[in-house]
């Protein structure tokens, strides 16, 4: 049996199947990236709910694996060299999974790097900006009388959606006919922006029909539908 005892996180979230990849996550846009990828790849894994509403990502056990205190994180019992391996940051995990399987990313080096640039685009732009829209439109930021921050993030969100709209013109997915980690990295964020963050009208989402059609196609994929609900809420 695989021994994962070197990872303190397994003491708080014990592995029932230590021979499977261990996922520590919640159903946030960053969290579902990895569960969607795992479902698309068909890799055996075990999901553990890290309840961010109860600040569980700031516990010593979770911080021992992810010092940034954000979900998701993984422990792979079959890591590089066949040894158990822990990893945090959703973009890095997506790249790790594609390297492990050779799937969800083009084999051609140029197209591989083109895919990676769109993953980085999500990590450096879409994630931070959409998250700020959520704060100022749905959460405590609503109480701030000065609406200039909301205006700034709304305008920047529209610009970023426009970047995706331009990229998708004449394409089924970000990388043409190939569904890749580039799409996976963005789907949950766009879904949350117009759904959970209640910003569809705010950002004028209906002005971007190509993005809307891409989102609908992505959400219709069975693996995406499963991944959006993993790990199940307790």
Automatic annotation (TrEMBL):
<feature type="domain" description="GST C-terminal">
    <location>
        <begin position="108"/>
        <end position="234"/>
    </location>
</feature>
<feature type="domain" description="GST N-terminal">
    <location>
        <begin position="18"/>
        <end position="105"/>
    </location>
</feature>
<dbReference type="InterPro" id="IPR004046">
    <property type="entry name" value="GST_C"/>
</dbReference>
<dbReference type="Pfam" id="PF00043">
    <property type="entry name" value="GST_C"/>
</dbReference>
<dbReference type="Pfam" id="PF13409">
    <property type="entry name" value="GST_N_2"/>
</dbReference>
<dbReference type="InterPro" id="IPR036282">
    <property type="entry name" value="Glutathione-S-Trfase_C_sf"/>
</dbReference>
<dbReference type="InterPro" id="IPR004045">
    <property type="entry name" value="Glutathione_S-Trfase_N"/>
</dbReference>
<dbReference type="InterPro" id="IPR010987">
    <property type="entry name" value="Glutathione-S-Trfase_C-like"/>
</dbReference>
<keyword id="KW-0808">Transferase</keyword>
<protein>
    <submittedName>
        <fullName>Glutathione S-transferase N-terminal domain-containing protein</fullName>
    </submittedName>
</protein>
<dbReference type="GO" id="GO:0016740">
    <property type="term" value="F:transferase activity"/>
</dbReference>
<dbReference type="InterPro" id="IPR036249">
    <property type="entry name" value="Thioredoxin-like_sf"/>
</dbReference>
<dbReference type="InterPro" id="IPR040079">
    <property type="entry name" value="Glutathione_S-Trfase"/>
</dbReference>
